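Researcher: I've been going back and forth with a colleague about how Glycosyltransferase 2-like domain-containing protein might be arranged in three dimensions. Neither of us has a model we trust, so I'd like an independent prediction. The organism is Azospirillum isscasi, in case that matters for your notes. Sequence below.
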Amino acid sequence: MKEPITKADITAAILLDDDTLVLFGAIDRSLPVQGAVHLDGSVEGRYAGRSWADAEGERWFLGGIRVPGLAQMRPSRVELADENGERLVLPRLSNVRTNPSHLVSALKGFQPGALALALDFTIQLAAASKDGAEGGSDRIGRLLSGLAQEVSQPDGFAEVFGRFRDGSLMLQGWARSFRSGAQKILIEAEETAAYRTTAGSFARPDLPPDAAGVMAVLTDQTPLPTSIRRIHYRAAEGWRHLEIFEHRTILPDGVASAHVRDMLGNIRDTETRQTMARIAASRYDGAETVSRLDIPVRTGLDMALRVPGAGLFVAGWLLDPTRQVRAVTLKGPGVAVRLDEGWSRLARRDVTEAFQNDGLFAGRLIPGQDQHGFTAFAAEPSGLPQGAEFHLELELAGDRFAFLPLSCLPPAPEALRRMLSLVNLDSPSIDTLIARHVGPMLRTARSRSATPPAAGVHPMGRPVKAPRVSVILPVTDGREDVDLNIARLAIDPDFAETELLVVAAAGTHERLGGAVRQAAAFYRMAVSFVAAPDATDPFEAVAAALPHARGERVLLLSPSVLPTEKGWLSALERVSRKSGGPVMVSPTLLYEDHSIRFAGIMAVEGPDGAKTFERRFAGYPRDWLKEQDAATVDAAAPECALLPKDALIRALATMGSYMGADHKGLDLCLRLRALGGACVWLPRVTLVALDEQPRDAHADRWRRAGAMVDRWSFEDIWSARAAA
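Model: Here is an independent structure prediction for Glycosyltransferase 2-like domain-containing protein. You can compare it with whatever you and your colleague have in mind.
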């Protein structure tokens, strides 16, 4: 289709934010009210516009163009397409400005009668504008303020202000033209912006016959009453505003809801009165009200945990045998999330038994119907204060509401483990829950505590001035028999000039330090006892010990790995020196029956293109291995691996966030390779790796949940890197 040639004179072009451009000028045809915009034939966005003819018949237009990243573009061709696909080509843009006053001046000079239309149009643009666009709110606010000051006429006064706990506002005063019902108003303060409100009028004998009392309840967070300069609104005859009464009253905190309820009987319009009654009833004033209900509804919390910047986890129960509850919403500053639309329900027979003799519930609880428990998640926007308060809102039949404050636990490790133990692993939506809520919450919480645990160091045994290798032995369980490990190393000449760092992490036996001291003295080994009670796994223990390691190379050695021969460290060192780069060298690890436990980890691509990492030959007899020479693999065994200290420090510094240790070893190897290193397996060197059972088997539930989260986190991290 041939594009019509558009004759237009663009009088003003104003960049309101990084994505929004406003155009004003004369044109020879009507423009579409909305449609698509094409810049230079490739970049697409949205368009909204208004056009009109003045008294002389000349046609003018206002247009708003929204294209992501528009501020960085210099388009030479702008095409507008209506819903039917017809395109109009505008002249090349020039002299684009960022000061909104230029648009106000242009309208005053050429089309003063269109200033009110421009204000209506700008309010629509502001609603569609991206929240938080750089420079956006300031320029849009200045344009709204400039236009309002030109067209808005005085109409009354605002005399009383009250602030609700959620940050919104109620105001009361008088006016001649304030419409009743739901509408948008402009509040002119430090920044001018539009807010949703419901307003009602009432009779006042002290006013002229053409005026009435006005009460408005806003549903958005609003400026402080002390900073408000004017309140603008659209009346039947144009824009009007309330001045702020010099001796205005600002109600004390917590009084706004009660004041609105007291005034409801005076509101003339029935529908408005009902709407305002509902709004007032839904305003939380900081008190728990569920226990005061005269209907059979009760709720309680087992746990509320918050990870600032990520979200909240709530576990509890709701007893509602007569289906009075219409919605359960978690609310806080900038947060309103319906929990009942996606929560997991759990059987809570204890709740049934606790209320079966209660007068409100007697005869209403059906035996065997115990699905009263719930667990739920809610995301929160970034930037909320650390001490932000949250509550549950129960919306009940008959436009009633009840509230339950949340006392949120901080994301300490024990609280995170408790949260995982409460997650319903059998939920059909568990994968979605982990991807949307549990995973991001735990990742945020763990990343904020990613600094290496503090450690105290106690030298023992025979000192070594310049150790050729620093051996790190992380102890993360209740064992105290590491004297066996020290003895195995002491009889091997390879370890005569090494240092051994025994790291006592969380959960270690109190007698471990004494056992290490005795063994170090008896075997005349250079040993340092590193106390790191905040380290929860071998990798955190290694990170705590690394600042105290003096060797250029580090040997990671699990207490469960025992040598079967001498000279194996020298063999690993030779491979490390020949590599010419940062490599992580591991031997073959065997089970106690001498079957293969580790013979290199390799990536295997599945039919869907996704990669999995498999331990080669695991469980095969030892004789199955015919290889002797060192071979490059995709991952080494962190239970026994030699690598440069500086490479280990860099890899650990960027390690992903995990609840357990299962994925950390693989993550470490991949990060080492991303830094230019490699992983090598030396088949002919063999050690035995004992199959240790966890000593805290009671924690199986949270460990299972943590493993699912860690698998998601690993795949999320490394799939993103592969895509990049």
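Researcher: What would you highlight for our discussion?
Model: I'd start with this: Confidence is low (pLDDT under 50) at residues 130-136. After that, consider the following. DSSP finds 15 helices and 35 strands in the chain.
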